[in-house]
Amino acid sequence: MRRPPTPPPRISKSTARRKYAIAGLAIAGTVLVAGGIGFYQFCKDLLKYADIHNYDDRNEVLYRLGFPPAVLDDSQKNHPYAGRRSLKTNREAAPEDPDSVIPEGRTVADYYEWSYPVRGAPNAKAALYVDFDRTTKVIDNIDCVDFSDTPHFCAPLAGIAIGDSEDRVKEKLGKPDRYDLDGVTKTMTYDGAGVEFKLTKGSVYYLRLSRTNGRSVIQLLNFYLRSLIR
């Protein structure tokens, strides 16, 4: 005569609760670790653009990007629009127009904004500008300006690319801390992350990464979470 099958051992409610609690903690731990890694990478991405960091000095920029083909003179510093007049640093490049090159006796060290062409961009339609603090000689801003037709050549910044719409910027990053409308240009500034975007006709053409000594982990975390939920 066959014996009836042995019933499985009964699991008490307290044991089941412990198992569920352990599983829940494991899932929460995995989410926290993944979120922490993502936040760490997000913060790193807001310190670097175009192979230079927003805390590099001029020597480091020279090492990483090379000798700047052009500089901006003092009278053009802080000009509100991109594409302002620059001075070539190679005097042999324009012998017929001496006013377009830096004067005799001056070097790139006498200027605090350097300009580089963006690799691959045709006819200098995209340019990288590196702006230095006059006292510390450390980067203040890294700007990329791109007026080229598609494809664009400036790399995205904080998930925003050249050609993105104003709605796309807000969907990705939320409402900016500051708006500024000057003629045909609108500026959207996110102080907590140290990024800024200029738009014309509703599209981004200018990206800026700033050195922001005052931003806190709380500000960055808030900005990161906003970018995730949109």
Describe the structure.
- The chain has 230 residues and is an alpha+beta fold.
- The protein has one domain.
- It is 27% helix and 23% strand.
- The chain contains four helices and eleven strands.
- It has a nine-stranded antiparallel β-sheet with strand order 4-3-5-6-7-11-10-9-8, with no helix packed on it. A two-stranded antiparallel sheet has the order 1-2.
- The longest helix is centred in the N-terminal third of the chain and has 33 residues, at 13-45.
- The model has no long low-confidence stretch (mean pLDDT 79).
Question: What attributes does this structure have?
Answer:
single chain, 230 residues, alpha+beta, nine-stranded antiparallel beta sheet, two-stranded antiparallel ribbon, 4 helices, 23% strand
Mean pLDDT: 79
Q: Determine the number of helices (DSSP H or I, runs of at least 4 residues).
A: 4
Count of discrete domains: 1
The side-by-side strand order for the widest beta sheet comes to 4-3-5-6-7-11-10-9-8
| Strand tally | 11
Structural class: alpha+beta
First-to-last CA distance: 67 Å
State the order of secondary-structure elements, H for helix, E for strand.
Answer: HEEHEEEEEHEEEEH
Strand content: 15-25%
The profile of the biggest β sheet is:
9 strands, antiparallel
**From the alpha-carbon coordinates, what is the Rg to the nearest angstrom?**
26 Å
Q: Based on CA inertia axes, which overall geometry fits?
A: elongated
